[in-house]
Amino acid sequence: MIINWKPDKSIETPLYIQIVDYFINMIKKGYFVAKERFPSQRNLAEIFSVNRSTVVLAMDELKAQGFVITNGKGGTYVSKHCWIKNRENITLNSFLSLGILKRKNKIYKKIEENYSKVKVDFSKGELDESLYPNNTMKKIIAEVSFEISDLSYGNKNGDKGLIKKIKEEMIDLGIDMEQNDILIVSGATQGLFLVALGMISQGNIIKTRMPSYMKSLEIFNAAGLKIEDFSYDKKTLYNAFYMIPTFHNPTTNLMSSLDREFFMNKYGRHNLIIEDDVFRDLWYDSEPPNPLKSYVGGENVIYVNSFSKTLATGLRVGWICASSDIIKKLSEIKSQIDSSTALINQKIVLKWLESSEYVKNINNIRKELKKRRDLIDDILSRDFKDIFLWSIPKGGYYYWIKSKDNIKALDIFERALEYGLLVNPGDLYGEKESSSIRISFASCEEEKIKGGFKILKKVMNSLKYGL
């Protein structure tokens, strides 16, 4: 049962009545169905941020009205009789608003409505076509198609050859693979989804550095987790952390080895930590420190990575590295969703890793992205030094730039869209009243970048001076 609602403490209606009305409405509309189990009273109290006595009152009233039943073991369920009685209220249109993953954000809607007018897109988190290794990919796909004889689902945890190769990479990063295992997933986003649903109870807190990766926020919200901004404090016990220590999305920050050691010493021993490391290989000047999972306390880290950022987003092949018990649990959950990640795609990735072409490809991507990074720094230093604050990214796809005049990011986003430029406002990443925008230089060649910043200069002048 996913609950993404809280009673309103600012209105006169008693809290327990609001909770009763909420559950009745959800049952009548078909969101909660017959025999669906309610969370425990303690968990409901945490989810609703109320006293347990308030939940007891609400559940007693729901029982009295016939919407809830209990069994001898103490479980509480939606009444089958009540659900059947009310299901005639459910129409086909009712189902359009069901489900846990929803994008109600007005920003997305605005982008969809105006995308046909976009001339330069600085929003995409993927490589542009010129950086995809198309010729080598065609060659490798041809080799795989000639060699492959197994078109079944394959091994539940992933192709054994690919798992072996990834384990070697993990060992090189200082991770003890005697105590850990690998699960191949359909991209890092699926990995986060599995962890959020399978490892963290609804209503629990997950700490992350805000602003944070937009899809992670959507997933955690859908899983009914309480997202809180992370800052070092005296408390060391939380339910979970979500960390992007290497070329953070969207800020591009890089956690130093000393900071990683401090973090793991303080939080690693007693908390579940999800480490998102998808940009690790895209460094420009020097390799980043080893993952959090390689430090003391790493047994509590669930490490997530992907080949989407370095090969092709369309392959949808990523992996989770975690203790064997965790991998076993996540594998069971994954098998209920998609049986296995596409075997042919796994074979394609393995063929890349076995050849010298993979390293050549990454070196080429680094070289080209570094050129674009330096080009943008030159443009910002020349034309925007009085308009934006920024730091030069050491890796990844993005610049994170902040208005010196605190012009709202949503205003920049909307005006830029009118001019045919698409940028991502900081609000998409959970930063309230943001004055920062994220610029992707991975998705645009140099001429597009120059053209995009010309538009951005007009946008900022129009917002600052009304020009």
- As for the CATH topology of the largest domain, it is Aspartate Aminotransferase, domain 2
Coarse morphology: globular
- CATH homologous superfamily name of the largest domain? Type I PLP-dependent aspartate aminotransferase-like (Major domain)
Provide the number of structural domains.
3
Gyration radius, in Å? 25 Å
Overall pLDDT score? 89
Distance between the termini: 52 Å
CATH class of the largest domain: Alpha Beta
Give the percentage of residues in beta strands.
5-15%
Specify the biggest β-sheet.
7 strands, mixed
CATH architecture call of the largest domain: 3-Layer(aba) Sandwich
Helix and strand content put the structural class at alpha/beta
Count the beta strands: 15
- Main-sheet strand order equals 4-10-9-8-7-5-6
Helix fraction by DSSP (H/I, runs of at least 4)? 40-55%
- Our count of helices gives 16
Low-confidence stretches: none
Structure, explained:
There is one protein chain. With 467 residues, the protein is α/β, with parallel strands linked by helices. The protein has helices spanning 15-28, 41-48, 52-64, 80-86, 92-95, 106-114, 134-147, 160-172, 188-199, 214-222, 257-268, 324-337, 343-354, 357-383, 409-418, 446-465; strands at 68-70, 76-78, 120-121, 180-185, 205-208, 226-229, 240-243, 272-276, 301-306, 318-323, 388-389, 398-403, 421-422, 424-425, 436-440. The protein has 3 domains: 15-95, Arc Repressor Mutant, subunit A, CATH 1.10.10.10; 106-125 and 360-465, Aspartate Aminotransferase, domain 1, CATH 3.90.1150; 151-354, 3-Layer(aba) Sandwich (Aspartate Aminotransferase, domain 2). It has a 7-stranded mixed β-sheet, sandwiched between helices. A 4-stranded antiparallel β-sheet has the order 11-12-15-14. A two-stranded antiparallel sheet has the order 1-2. Helix 11 (257-268) links the parallel strand 7 and strand 8 (272-276). The longest helix has 27 residues, at 357-383. The radius of gyration is 25 Å and the shape is globular. The N and C termini lie far apart (52 Å). The mean pLDDT is 89.
